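Lab notebook page, bench 4
Experiment: in silico fold of construct C2
Operator: M.H.
Input chain length: 311 residues
Purpose: comparison with the prior construct
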Amino acid sequence: MTATATTSPAVLAVDLGGSAMKGAVVDGAGRELATRTVPTPDQDVVAGLTRLLGDLSGLAADAGATPVGAGVVTPGSVDEERGVVRYASNLRWRDLPLRDLLGEATDLPVAVGHDVRAAGVAEQLFGAGRGSDSFVLVPLGTGVAAAVVVDGRVVTGFTGAAGEFGHIPLVPDGEPCPCGQRGCLEAYASAGALTRRYAAREGRVLTAEQVVAALGSDPTADRLWDEAVTVLAQGLDVLTILLDPQVIVLGGGLSRAGARLLEPLTAKMDDGLAWRDRPPVVLTELGDRAGRLGAAVLAFRAAGRSDLDQP
């Protein structure tokens, strides 16, 4: 937890994940005045969120700031206009009116958004997508999704489910995916997939970071990494041909592999694009702050303010 004094209005921002809730108090200059991360409760996540927002409100007061709104971003299918989480499997939510529930509990204007799309908003305003009105952000974490920005706007889709990049089936009769399909990109090219697939072959558990560290000395790690990069390159080539983005931004835990990811990935993408050049592929500039910062942007907008829309 950190804190810095200020007299500026601020918002309460939470990036809600299946295992952790990452919260921050953010002022109108995008500074995190205070942060708090707590485990996501196994039961009654809404009550846990309410407690965290209360804690953040206290931290804002300690920093001399006045909360003017709150933003919560979550995985799953999100109807952002209504503030309803249509479906989030890890949280066991379906058609949850999260904005109304949190608004009643906090007495603040509340915005509810999709975690990856919100990260895309932050990356567009403050990070690697800055200055571009056409790019794709692909966080490679436990799962894989995408924030698609076209003509300066984040695409949400008809049902709010746009960006489920990880559930594009790319491997015919491939490994089963938790979504019910087979051969999904996420079943090969996510941190969760690397851990699961390594354990299935070697009988011991390595984190994705440990699999990457073993490259060059562990044939199983080498093989699984090559398969993951191959499938990811195929998916990014599909996005390139379909959307023609100016730049592709990679985030999430696997992006920390740096050159070990970018060098083979861009080579495989080049091999798969016969008639056109690929766009630049770069790493996120905001890292795991992107979701919280995107939630803060949404919170200021919900409060009728544009503080973070003009970085």
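Observations: Residues 219-243 form the longest helix (25 residues). The helical segments are 45-62, 98-106, 115-126, 191-202, 208-213, 219-243, 259-272, 290-302.
Next step: discuss at group meeting.
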